[in-house]
Amino acid sequence: MTELTEQEREFAREAAATPRPEGSVRVAGIDCGTNSIRLMIADVDEAGLHVRVPRIMDVIRLGQDVDRNHAFAPVALERAYASVARFAEIIRLAGGVDRIHFVATSATRDASNREEFEDEVERLLGARPEVIPGTQEARLSFLGATSHLSAQQLRDKAPLLVVDLGGGSTEMVLGGTGEQASEVAQSISMNIGSVRMSERHLLSDPATAEQIAQAQDDIDGVLHDALRTVNLEKTRTLIGVSGTITTLSLAAQGEKVYSRELVDGVQVSIENAKKAADMILSLSTKDMESWPVIHPGRRDVIGGGVLVYSRLLTLVNALTRKAGHEITSYTASERGLLEGIILDAGRSMLASR
């Protein structure tokens, strides 16, 4: 197991020393995606979510070659197990929790040897992964991305389109118009993500114009099919979540260093985001070393991700312009699936009391 950093130990000690609010439950949420794995510990009560151990992320590339081989690579599993063991230690040092909710998404859905992965995670963590379908991933992403908004704020911004761009899949969720403000109206999970598109198409460093064109055709075809399920032209507010989108958003503002404080809630023009996407696609992984805003674990796959988002932004802009309410910007958010995982688990526990 990789040693915990001093900051991680301090987060855990502070959590252990923090009393739980009356009537709350403490949940450790783990979001295991195609490229990264994240942990957060929070108390959940009727007022919402109170973070005790802020998000800790490791880039593990669990989905390495899954698009081609439909199975986890042994080296990818070893990286995942090392992170799970670290997370288990953080949870222990934090004084334990009422529930550990480990959610696995796109790569695990596609892997033929997922049972081996699930068994070992359960042995290390004491909790078995829940491999959720894309529809549930979409619902939880919407819940997490809008968790800081009141019911009235949600309705004022509705219909909201939340886009969660992962390593293996991208979720689009339209909501905020139902009887319950957090209710999802339409959603889809598409098998286009940063790792999947990069491994499938962007094989040079940097990608060639021909490779980018082939990837665009692939992405545009998937987005066109998605229009049968999600009416993008209804969008009034666009929220983008995930490391790819927040990294792109910071780059669009000319930031060289990643900062959650600078990116969470910031409005980014579609025009600037698309220019930043083109710039990132033109860089080699070596060139990206001078852009520390791009995490080293994303450098070889961020091109596929920003291309997906650029094509999606182009489509949303065109459809809403035609509908008479053109969307020209989006809100970048640090909140997403992980917060949704914790809120959903916590509320379920509270309801069963």
UniProtKB/TrEMBL annotation:
Residues 41-344 form the Ppx/GppA phosphatase N-terminal domain. It comes from the Bacteria. Residues 1-24 are annotated as: Disordered. Residues 1-13 have a biased composition (Basic and acidic residues). InterPro entries: ATPase_NBD, GppA/Ppx_hydrolase, Ppx_GppA_N. GO terms for molecular function: pyrophosphatase activity. This is Exopolyphosphatase.
